[in-house]
Sequence to fold (348 residues):
Amino acid sequence: MKKFFKLFVLVLLVTFANSGIASAEITKNFYGYQVKNINIRELVLEINNAIDAYQGDDKFKPVENVSNAYIYSDSNCSYFVKLYPSNQNTNIYVVSNEKYDVEKNELTDFLTYYGYKFAKLEDDAALKEYKFDFYALARKQQLGNFYISPDLVKPLKTGMKAINNKMAKDNKKTSVFPYTPDTEPIDLDCVDTTSYYDENAKISIIQKEYRLKQKENKYVHAYEYILTNKNNSNATVTATSERLAALKDVTTESFVDLDRLDMIDTVGTFPPVLIMTAGTSALLSVPNWVRLAKITAESKRFSNALPENYELKQQADMRILVLKYKDDPKPLNFNIKFANGDEHNITF
Fold:
């Protein structure tokens, strides 16, 4: 009861602090669409080509330094759009002001004009993740006239990240767990699949990206690499990366976030629009250590060290599981040495 009372008082304080926005409305304008049977790379190409070819007023603008994100604005409506991979489909996330028509707008007109099949996005896990991504971008002031309240625990999270980065400096291996082959099925949503084939080395690589189930999915995604040696010679494989997410990074950042409250956020152009997003973590009775244990259990499988001089026999394959930061996913670098003396370096 005492904790709930403190939460109520905090809500009132933030509300009064924002009372100067006289014309603001409380709303929740978050929407999602899923475009069927077209992956994100193909759809982004179509959208960018359409924007470049458009001869009228330039109302759709790409967000600077943010992949696959756009801002649309005119005298009646403004909204933020970001595209996400959904394996062979593409998800589109929209945050708008009050005047946005979810059924018919410039975006749905574009999809209809090009004959794409689309429907309302019903994936709650995806929508929660995309919402957090929007908050992070808005707080970095990367979205023009879209505003949001400050992150109340940003100083603590920034300090944790600085410590983790300092500890990981010049450390190519970001885990104390040795590499071991993993052949068990992965029970996670696959959001993207890409492949690469090196003709000279006769090495094929399939990369799959997964959304985790616990709260660490706000910061990291799980990746699976499958290397197949189609060469007639055995090989040794050593993998490195400029930066991967280690288990300690995931647990410290997720733990700081467990009691994080998004109390009252502002988003919009003019006039501003208030979005009420009272976090439920302060009201739930699940202990932090229970949630942290689930996060640790889920992330640990993807936190092993990268392989070093691993023997990959001819016509055989190997699997590597890693965690990558969503905002800066670094590739893996593979050094492959064959028994016949050939050596190849692949970055993917």
